[in-house]
Each structure stands twice: as structure tokens, then as C-alpha cells.
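The step that takes the researchers longest sounds almost clerical: writing a folded protein down as plain text. The outcome of that step, for a single protein, is printed below.
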Amino acid sequence: MNTLIFHKQYYSIAIKSHNKAISCQRSVMELMKNRNEWLKQDIIDESFSKLISNSTLSIVYSGLTIESFINFYGMKNNTEANWKKKYEKLSLFQKWNTIVKDINGKTFSVPCLNALRELIKARNELVHYKALGSDAKDFYNHLLGLESAPNFSYELLEKASQCIQTITLLFKELEIIDPKTSIADLSWDEDSELWYHLYSVDL
């Protein structure tokens, strides 16, 4: 089989988006230190909107990372016929639990599997879209009713951070279960001219 190893690119996007979301949160918090800055609605709206979009990207691409990797890992360690027969139609959670156990005779800890469930849940909540409980305008209007800056944190960014932490946890445990794997398997060289070869491998 020949497959494209997109998990490397997906992980890079998840990390970069998470870092941008953190930067946007800091920008909003900095504006909120001085109540006079709250009059700059356009700037606050822009920072808050970028916080939402980058947090969303990070969660979605974290989900894509773990889905792409486990498909790659399963195909690499199986014949094409066996992959299609036993694993291809499993849910994402079942793939991580079943494929790793079938190949190595061991699976992940309960806390790790619970974290995996939460990552999948966070991704699914965004994929099966429901209206957000607040937007930039709501946030700005909320500020106007306050006398001092609140202790600001945004749930979507917290979920994005948890997703990144879960990927790290999964790979730390997978490296113990299967020493041939490592979190380094997610890294890639953006500046390399061998772009295709970074993503393509014969299985």
C-alpha cells in the first residue's frame, strides 16, 4: 500500500493554531487591564474572533492528527486485506484501542483512554456544529457592565490545550507499548523541498 502521512502536517497546524490562540488570549487580557482600552471594540472583537478561530482549528486538527496517525500505524502493521477486513470501519476510539492492542498485546491506561474520548468529543462537537454560546459582540457587551477586568479564560482554548496534551500523552504511552514509535513521528521539516517524501511511504 502507499499512503500519505498527513498526520505530520495536521499536528503542525494544531500546534501553530494553539499557539496563536494563546497569543490572542494574551492580547485580549492586555487590553482588559485598562478599562479605557475597552472602548476599542474593533480591536477586542478582532482578537476575540481570532481566539475562537484558532482554538477551533487546533481542536479540529488535533482530531485529524490522531485519526490520520492511527490509520497510518494500522496500515503499516497489517496487510491491506486484513486492514480493510478488521479495522477500516472501526470508530476512531476503537481503532486506537484495538489496533495497538492487536499489534503489541498491550493497550493504553484508563486515564489515557479517557483523555482520548474527550479529544474525540471536543472534535465531534465542532464537526457537528451547534451555535456558540457567545461571540465577540457578546463578549464586548459583557465587558461594558464590569468595573474591573475579569479573570479571563475561554473554554474553547482550554479544550484546545487539553487536546494537545492528549496527543502528547497518547504518544508517550504508545512509545512504551511500542518503542519503535515516538512523538517525534509527528515532526516534519516545513522547509524541505522533499515535501512529498515527508508524507508518502510505501507500506
About this structure: Helices lie at 7-32, 41-76, 80-87, 92-104, 110-127, 136-144, 155-177, 195-199.
